[in-house]
Amino acid sequence: MKKIGITTTVPVEVLIAAGYQPIDLNNVLVADPNPGRLITIAERAGFPLNCCSWIKGIYGVCMDTGIRDVLCVTGGDCSNTIMLMETLKLKGLNAVPFAYPDSPDPCLMQPKLEELAATLGTTLEEADKIRDTLQPVRDLALKLDELTWRENTVSGWENHLWLVSASDFNQDFRKYRQDLLNLLQDCSQRQPHPTGHLRLAYIGVPSVYARELYPFIEKHGARVVFNEVQRQFAMPEPGKSLAEQYSSYTYPYSVNERLKDIKTELQKRRVDGVIHYVQAFCHRGIGDIIFRDAIDLPLLTLEGNDDFFLNNHIKTRIEAFLDMIQRGRRRSVNVKKGKLEGVLAPSKNTPPSLRK
Ligand code: SF4
After folding, report:
1. Count of alpha carbons within 13 Å of 289, Cβ hemisphere only?
2. What average pLDDT does range 237-250 have in this prediction?
3. How far apart are CA 235 and CA 249, in angstroms?
4. Taking 90 as the threshold, does the pLDDT of residue 342 lie above it?
5. Could you tell me the fold of the domain covering 2-117?
6. Phi/psi of residue 262, nearest 5 degrees
7. Which residue lies with its CA nearest to atom 3 of ligand 1?
C-alpha cells in the first residue's frame, strides 16, 4: 500500500479504502530515539522557536522519512496545520487538506467524507466495508480501556499507548489486532492493581513526555484510569455510519462537546483528580479556563514544550498534587468515621476539651 502521513486522527477508513496505509506522523515523532533532532530540522528550515513542537516535529518527520503524501487536517485540529501544509507543498509534497465540520452533525460530516473519498479516488461504500473490518479492532482497544478502569489490570501507560495508536493502528491494523489480543490474554492472568491508589484522569492532547509521565504517577501511588483524547481515537461511539462515527468523535469540536464526554467518564470511573496537559504555544491551552470552571475535582495543569522527559519542576508539581489529594481523601475518611483528626488535627497545644 502507498503510505500517507496524517497530522492527527482522520477517517482512516477512507484512506485505507483508497489503497493508502495511514501513518500518524505524531506517533513517528515520539517513537524516534531522538525526537529533538526532528524538531531541529524544522527550526533550521525557519520554523519559529515559539511554534508548537508537534507541528515542527511533523515537518521534521516528513523531511526525514521522505514521505510524499500527507493528509493535513486544517479544520477541527490546529490552525498551524494550514501553514504547515503550505510549507510541505513548497517542498514538493502532495499535501491534501481535510477539515472537520464546525459542529458535530452527521449531515455536515457526510459531504466532507464524500469529498475526501472523491479526492483520493474511492467511494464511501468502499470505506464502509473497511469500517466493518476495523470495528472488531476498535472494540479490542475499547475492551483494554474498560479493563483499565473497571478491572484495574491495565496500566495508565498501556492504556495511553494502545489508544493513541488507534489513530493509525501502528501502521498495520492486522498486527495491531494480534498484538492487542496477546496483551489482553496477558491481562487476564494479572492481579488487579492494589486498591487504595488514587484514580486520575488525563485530559488534553497527548503529552510529549508521556513515556515518563505515566510510570512516574504510578510510582507515587496513583494511576491514570481515563485518557480522554486517546480514548476518542478508538471511536467509543461508532454509531451507524462513518458520518455518525466522526460526529461523535469529540476532539475536533468545541470544549463543551468534549466536556459532556469527560464529565460522564470522570463519574463513571470514580476519578479523584484530573491532569490537564497543554502544549506550549497551543491555542487549546486557553480551554484550561473552561475546564477549571466546569470540573469539580482537583485539577493540575501541566505544560510541555520540547522536553521529551519529565524535568524536576514538573515532578515536584505532580508529587504536590498527589499529596494534596491524598490528604483530602484522608480528611474526608476521618470525617466520615466521626474522628476529630483531619478536621482539626490535635497537637500538644490543642485544648483538652477538643481532644478525643
Ligand atoms: S498541540 Fe496545539 S498547536 Fe500543537 S499541533 Fe496540536 S493543536 Fe496544534
Report:
1. 3
2. 98
3. 6
4. no
5. Rossmann fold (3.40.50)
6. -60, -45
7. 282
- Tell me the best of 10, 282, 303 to mutate to test the pocket of ligand 1, counting ligand atoms within 8 Å of each CB and taking the most: 282
Residue 68 backbone dihedrals phi, psi, to 5 degrees = -100, -30
pLDDT in tens, 80-100: 999 999 999 999 999 999 999
How many angstroms separate the CA atoms of 255 and 318, rounded?
A: 24
Measured CA distances, 218 to 134, 210, 250, 286 (Å): 32, 13, 28, 28
Mutate which of 53, 78, 207, 209 for ligand 1? The one with the most ligand atoms within 8 Å of its CB, which is 78
The closest-lying atom of ligand 1 relative to the alpha carbon of residue 77 is 7
Beta strands 222-227; 198-204: pairing state: parallel
Residue of higher predicted confidence among 291 and 336: 291
User: In angstroms, what is the span from residue 6 Cα to ligand 1's centroid?
Assistant: 14
Q: What are phi and psi of 5, to 5 degrees?
A: -75, 150
Please give the order of strands across the beta sheet that includes 198-204. Answer: 222-227, 198-204, 273-279, 299-304
- What are the φ/ψ torsions at residue 183 (nearest 5 degrees)? -65, -45
Instruction: Enumerate the β-bridge partners of residue 303.
Output: 278
88-95 own/partner pairs: CB under 8 Å, 24+ apart: 88/59, 88/62, 91/62, 91/63, 93/62, 93/67, 93/68, 93/69, 94/68, 94/69, 94/70, 95/70
Element holding 275 (H helix, E strand): strand 273-279
Per-domain boundaries in the chain: 2-117
Q: Give the CA distances from residue 73 to residues 55, 112, 154, 335, 348, in Å, rounded to whole numbers and listed in that order.
A: 12, 12, 32, 51, 64
CA distances for 270 relative to 149, 201, 236, 274, 316, angstroms? 9, 10, 19, 11, 25
Compute the distance from residue 55 Cα to the ligand 1 centre, in Å: 7
All three cell numbers of 159, joined, read 492504556
14-70 residue pLDDT tens: 999 999 999 999 999 999 999 999 999 999 999 999 999 999 999 999 999 999 999
From CA 140, how far away is CA 144, in angstroms rounded? 6
Q: Please say whether the beta carbons of 282 and 52 come within 8 A.
A: yes
